[in-house]
Amino acid sequence: MFFRLYKYSLLCSARERLFIFWNLIFPIILGSLFQIAFGSYTEKEVLFHKIPVAYVEEEGADENFAQLLKTLETDNDLVQVQTVEKDEAEQLLREEKVEGIFYNEAVKQTETEISLVVQEQDINQSILSSILEQYERTYATLLTIGKEYPQGIQAAAALVEEEIEYLEESSIGAASNNDMLNYFYSLIAMNCLMGTTTGLACAMKFKANLSALAARRVIAGVSRFRVLWPDLAANISLQFLYVVFSVCYLMFVLHVPIGDQWGFLLLTIFVGTLLGIFLGFFVGVAVRLPYNAKEALCILIMMVSCFFSGLMADGMQRLIDRYVPVFSHINPSSLIVKSFYSLNIYDTYGRYLENMGTMAILILILAVGSFVVVRRERYASI
Amino acid sequence: MQVFKAFFRILYKNKTSLLMYVFIYLGITLLASSVLQEDKKTDFSGISLDIGVKNKDTGSLGKNLEKYLESRNQLVDVPEEKEDLQDAIYYQEMDYVLLIPEDFTEKFQAGEWEGSLQGTKVPGSSSAYLIENEIQNFLKTVSMYQKAGCDIEQAVTWSLQDLEQKSKVEFLEKDNSQGLPDGFYFFQYIPYVFLVMMILGVGASMKPFREKDLAARNKCSSTSFLKQNMQIFLGCMMYMLIVYIVFMAMACLMMREYMFTLQGFLNAANAFLFGICALSVAWFSVQFAKNAATLNIMSNVFGLGFSFLGGVFVSLDMMEEGARRAAKFVPSYWYVTANQHIQKVTSFSECGKVYQSFLMVLMFALAFFSAGLLANRMKVKSR
User: Fold this and answer.
1) Is residue A195 part of a domain?
2) Could you say which of A57, A175, A232, B256 would form a disulfide bridge with A104 (CB–CB 3.0 to 4.6 Å)?
């Protein structure tokens, strides 16, 4: 009997067009919009690219700096130099085609002055400024050495050209450079928690005082719990499939690096879905409000929970982690986000298991709570 | 004006959800203008980064390097646990982590320079590049002095002195105050809230008139079909005006001075034109909305869709070239472009690009209105 009821419940839920839109299509639309908006953030804002720069040289100016720029362009891939006239350079800067202009002016016969003109103060401009500083400082250093230690000047000058790697580098996992991933984790969390509305629908079909269908079920010859299990199971499976589908869309169509540990990813999605559905079911059976108000409450819980895990504002999760850690440890959406994050960022599973454990406890509390509310319910008259 | 009155009576019933959007909007703008507001800068000082330094060096070089880095950046403590360190780097609280080993000064003195420090960074990041450059710079200068025959203490002193030298960096526009005014942020998010409020408000009020039975009953009433439609049209315009006035009043209350400048005036005009466009979008989407649930879907799809695609929530610069080209096909793109250009103009004669964007928004309004008419026509015919 379980499988027959499971099948029909599955068919019923799969035909709810509104559920299909909100639980399947909406996350896909939102995911696509996120990708359009933040997809190239890391590429554009975090990763280093050759810096386009204009170079204006006055006649009679020192040519060493031009030489340095050329080396930086060809050997170090640091800048992309366009040697132009002053007016054209300013035009390029205004049109944001270059990040800065180096002016190399002859002040006196033997002296030149090099300056940098920029339009804003950001990382690329700082790098350009550091190139200029480095050039001028090396010059100053050589001057001092020439004055104080003339015998060592050649050895010191030889060092200028030499590449010395003082730093031994160790980098942190590649996923670390993409904090926009948090938006996508929150989106998946929202998708899991969309299950609250299906959980609520289950409750409506279960408690006889809530709907005519539930009243009809109570008078059937079968225990109402034997009807409930397949109903819950069907909704959980369907919601799980919806979320897996949108995660696949994010990963394979939009190429968002959610992670590659498929087994754990699926487990997290499953536990997240369970949490969403039991949350909705608990609201359905325990709260005494009309259906519309209960639905609004479910959506409110979901949205607030997702807001604090960073769906609408970047860095919110971190803020909550720091200032209200207790809330962060019980907020369903935060727990789902942190589980995904732990899988992707850390090399160990300690924190992942911690988050999954908390979710399991929450599910247990909600399930037991719901059972305590509905057990031994009898209706004299409805 | 019975129809007109009925229109507003229905609207009044939906006041809670509509007002909610006004408050959400206020929240978003206040948050955005306080978080995104850049400091006004007139002197170029270079960007300051967060560096985690763990200094185990027993000699003096490590301490001096730390001092040098601190003069231009913020030094932060490095967390003990690896997971916490990964968190800090992921959330961009630390741009670089530098570990100075115990025997750093000793090894440096002995000329063992290569790999004398350990750095942890996000691979390929620009900020890490800048920090590495600073560290290399310092150490290279010290090495040069050392090679020239100077002892390490003196080399560090000379180096610090040389490194104090600042290069000459200027801004292209001398009075270039970098920050954007509050007004920019207030108007930036207008497309989202206007679209949602128009679709929900107009949709909710027009829906009952389009119900099959009621529409049939109204058709045989003494008020002509044209008059009824005119009143509904008037109701829509009135509603748009009310929403517009509410938002402009909020703008005047929050930034009085800004609103009475050229920028303020152009922003208000821009918002008004977008209001008309949002109304057309609402009229278009009402044709496809059968009930409140679908109306809700429509408002989310158009509101969020146009806002994300048009660069309302996330700056257009951040988008890929392809996405930016596609963005030209949504009205909010032109609204945002106008908003950006408005901040740059100083007189009406410089507003060429702004007027162009205004025109584009109006064209979209016309396009959505016509598409709505077409959909309506087809629906009536199919009955």
Assistant:
1) yes
2) A57
**Which positions ≥6 away from B187 have C-beta within 8 Å?**
B251, B267, B270, B271, B339
**B81-117: pLDDT as tens digits:** 888 888 888 888 888 999 999 888 888 888 888 888 8
Residue type, A259: G
Is A37 in the B-facing interface, judged by CB distances under 8 Å? yes
Task: Write out the residue range of the structural domain in which residue A20 sits.
Answer: 2-42+181-374
Binary contact (A156, B133; C-beta < 8 A): no
In tens, the pLDDT along B139-196 reads: 989 998 888 888 888 888 888 888 887 888 888 876 555 567 778 888 988 999 899 9
CB–CB of A33 and B162 under 8 A?
A: no
Pairwise CB contact (< 8 Å): A46 & B122: yes
- φ, ψ dihedrals at B366, nearest 5°: -65, -45
* Domain end point (choices A171, A190, A213): A171
Q: State the Cα–Cα distance between residues A188 and A243, nearest whole angstrom.
A: 7
End-of-domain residue from the set A149, A171, A193 = A171
CATH class belonging to B50-163: alpha beta
The structural domain count of chain A equals 2
Which A residues in the span 94-153 are in contact with B, Cβ-Cβ below 8 Å? 94, 101, 113-127, 129-130, 132-134, 136-138, 140-142, 144-145, 148-149, 151-153
pTM, two decimals, is: 0.84
Cα–Cα distance measured from residue A238 to residue A259, given in angstroms and rounded to the nearest whole number: 23
Same domain for A29 and A90? no
Any chain B CB within 8 A of the CB of A373?
A: no
How many angstroms separate the CA of residue A47 from the nearest CA in chain B?
Answer: 4
Beta-carbon-side half-sphere exposure of residue B117 (alpha carbons within 13 Å): 26
Chain A contacts in chain B segment 97-116 (CB below 8 A): 113-116
Do A31 and A62 lie in a common domain? no
Asked whether residue A341 is assigned to any structural domain, the reply reads: yes
Asked, for residue A84, whether it belongs to a domain, the answer is yes
| Min Cα separation A219/chain B (Å) | 32
Sheet holding A100-106, edge to edge: A79-83, A51-57, A100-106, A112-118, B168-171
Give the CATH number for residue A100.
3.40.190.10
Closest CA to A285 of A223, A196, A360: A196
Residue of B136, B147, B172 lying closest to A156 (CB–CB): B147
Task: Please tell me whether residues A79 and A202 are part of one structural domain.
Answer: no
Range list for CATH 3.40.1710.10 in chain B: 50-163
In a domain, A143, yes or no: yes
